[in-house]
Design goal:
D-Maltodextrin-Binding Protein, domain 2; six-stranded mixed β-sheet
């Protein structure tokens, strides 16, 4: 399913991209063609890199071409890091929980109930974390450089069958959720299913999964989960994941300095376009969900109990499992510190 950006997202993208006169070549350099490997089709998550590609062509008069290859054309979503290590392409979209063993420090991004629900806090925190030594080191093993977060919105869950309006309703439900979110669902009694986004619709149709956590709201629609679901959670807000963008280190270092500077100077373009696109999708999607699905809203007492069961205990488990390999406690502490800095600044 290829999505067309809603008018607000398109307008936001235009404002972000068209900052120089049409046809102006502001950056001189040689012809370069970059391939970016991406799972799934064009959607709000890819809008930022699409804006970057458009601006690269504009600024260089077509000399620096960046093309996104969708739907696993260049490699399986779980093998994009392997492709970068083999220099098969120049960049990729990756999702940390598709291959936790390959990027153990990146799993901090998927810990449940992190204090990053505000989009501005989320952007500041994850942008800072993309420069963190442990996050950089994870990618260095794969000849990759962290580039731009996907800034996925807070997840919510859609499912079929009886709605878990009470906390014990999650017991025994097969839930697609990754990383720490999956661990959190297990604390509530659910059975975690680690599926890629593209695999989830088929799992619903085959009856092998009961519910799925996705970024609210664009991803549920992009992968047609809402067409199979009966209900959705509206305020669980269990956290997010890092499905962002990394660059081939060898390819990046081979670029002329002007092209390197262009990429690094336009990370905010990617991030801001993504967030504008998510917001634009929400207006129509929330209306659609309320018209076609049963809405679950938990009370303050229920959400407090869920956090008590599934937040700090999962954080502690993650630290214990990783502390011998890297400073997991320090990585989490830094993320929380950046989130607090962002809140103070705002």
């Amino acid at each position: 399913m290829t999505l067309t950006l809603k008018p607000l997202a398109a307008a936001a993208l235009a404002c972000l991209v068209l900052q120089s006169p049409a046809g102006a070549a502001n950056i001189d350099g040689p012809p370069v063609f970059w391939k970016i490997s991406m799972y799934g089709n064009s959607r709000a998550l890819t809008s930022g890199m699409e804006a970057l590609a458009a601006k690269a062509a504009e600024e260089t008069d077509g000399k620096f071409q960046i093309k996104i290859f969708y739907a696993d054309q260049l490699g399986n979503s779980r093998e994009n890091l392997d492709g970068l290590k083999l220099n098969a392409f120049e960049g990729a979209g990756i999702c940390n929980f598709y291959h936790p063993g390959k990027n153990p420090a990146w799993m901090v991004f998927s810990l449940p109930f992190l204090p990053i629900g505000d989009p501005a806090v989320h952007k500041y925190t994850f942008k800072k974390m993309f420069e963190h030594p442990a996050i950089v080191a994870d990618m260095a093993k794969w000849n990759a450089i962290p580039y731009a977060s996907g800034l996925l919105p807070q997840y919510e869950i859609m499912g079929k069958g009886p709605a878990p309006t009470e906390i014990d309703g999650w017991s025994g439900l097969r839930v697609r959720a990754g990383g720490g979110l999956g661990d959190a669902m297990e604390k509530l009694g659910a059975i975690n299913q680690t599926l890629s986004a593209a695999e989830t619709l088929t799992a619903f149709q085959n009856g092998t999964v009961d519910a799925a956590a996705f970024p609210m709201t664009y991803a549920h629609v992009a992968f047609k989960i809402n067409e199979e679901a009966d209900w959705y959670t509206s305020n669980l807000a269990p956290g997010t994941s890092e499905c962002g963008w990394v660059l081939n280190k060898t390819a990046f270092e081979a670029l002329p300095q002007a092209y390197q500077d262009f990429l690094m100077d336009n990370r905010d373009l990617v991030l801001d376009t993504e967030q504008a696109s998510y917001a634009a999708e929400d207006a129509d999607n929330f209306k659609l969900f309320e018209e076609t699905l049963d809405k679950i809203t938990y009370s303050e007492e229920q959400t407090a109990e869920i956090r008590q069961l599934a937040a700090q205990p999962v954080w502690d488990d993650w630290i214990a499992a990783n502390q011998d390999d890297f400073d997991a406690q320090g990585v989490l502490n830094d993320l929380l510190r950046y989130a607090e800095e962002a809140k103070t600044a705002n």
